[in-house]
Amino acid sequence: MNLHEYQGKSILKSFGVAIQESVVIDAVEDAVSKAKELTEQTGTEWYVVKAQIHAGGRGKGVVEETGSHGVVLAKGIDKVEEVVKGILGGHLETAQTNGVGKKVNKVMIAEDVYYPGESEPSEIYMSVLMDRDKGRNVIMYSTEGGMDIETVAEKTPELIFKEEIDPRVGLQGFQARKIAFNLGLSGKAFKEMTKFVSALYASYEGCDASMFEINPVLKTSDNKVIAVDAKVTLDDTALFRHKEYAEMRDKTEEDPAEVEADEAGLNFVKLDGNVGCMVNGAGLAMATMDIIKQSGGNPANFLDVGGTADAARVEKAFEIILKDDNVKAILINIFGGIVRCDRVAQGIVDAYKNMGGIPVPLIVRLQGTNAEEAKTLIDESGLDVQSAVLLQEAADKVKSILS
């Protein structure tokens, strides 16, 4: 589950991570009063206004309606409302929104932390994530903060450092100090960074995150170390342990079809292809998508109906798949282990009749318990449904439909 920046920062702060203080608003008329509250809290006189959407590159992104960027510095309280008007309620298009602007329902007004002082501020990249090949959490960091880490990795890979964490002992003090040393810090900044790293890792583990990305971590001109940004992804399967985090989910930032599927108990991910998939089991879904690709098609979705495939569930799955106008055919591939194939077949027939037909070709492959009875049910239903026994046979039927 992805979080907004302000939500991620609230989690960081709860674990003792120093952050750029801010307020969040969803109405223009609240801009000035909330900015004044921030001034009372921090003393700031300039304000960073940041669009809150689930996408990176907001600073370079452009609001379609106004031409404003997604991150703008308001140089004074008298500029705040004007800047907020240019962002809030508009559609922000960034490099990560696939050419479609995302509506900005909230903006964050943050304190200005790039103030003059005894030294120059510097930006650092830092993230915590799982290295699945090694089965260990990794802290990745670089002196080249504020930039796309992909660009840094491509052009100057020697500037990216990684610190592996042994799960048996967790983050050790010497590792936090090593990170601060590799970043070229000393004195107060060195001590601040070691505390920052320790608190950041504690927050990552404590909230069952799958990724924390702070870009940038800022060493201020007076040698404080704070999180200026926060991209946080939580592990969905661990949310039962964190009810307060589960309530942070913003469904307006998600694909409507995926939200509908989730509410119906279906595992669904929308893709960009032309063949709809309905399967049971993640492994079978991956194999089905591979065979569709090999047959010359492209999967339009990942949809796992799970161990129950009655008429109501199948009908809902059909409805969700068919909301995609790019779908030219649907392949149902079910292995009857827990659920009997004939029960699934009856569910398909009932759903087909309830919907008054399916407007695209439908190919059904059922294998496992009572597979023969299921095939007979499909073949004798009188419906415009093609049945298959082998997966390759199903793929060939998809190929003939698309060609």
UniProtKB/TrEMBL annotation:
One of its GO terms (molecular function) is succinate-CoA ligase (ADP-forming) activity. SUPFAM superfamilies: Glutathione synthetase ATP-binding domain-like, Succinyl-CoA synthetase domains. Binds 1 Mg(2+) ion per subunit. Residues 2-217 form the ATP-grasp fold succinyl-CoA synthetase-type domain. It holds the Pfam family Ligase_CoA. ATP binds at K50, G57, R58, G59, V113, E123. Keywords: ATP-binding, Ligase, Magnesium, Metal-binding, Nucleotide-binding, Tricarboxylic acid cycle. Residues 278-397 form the ATP-citrate synthase/succinyl-CoA ligase C-terminal domain. Its cofactor is Mg(2+). Heterotetramer of two alpha and two beta subunits. HAMAP family: Succ_CoA_beta. This is Succinate--CoA ligase [ADP-forming] subunit beta. It comes from Brumimicrobium salinarum.
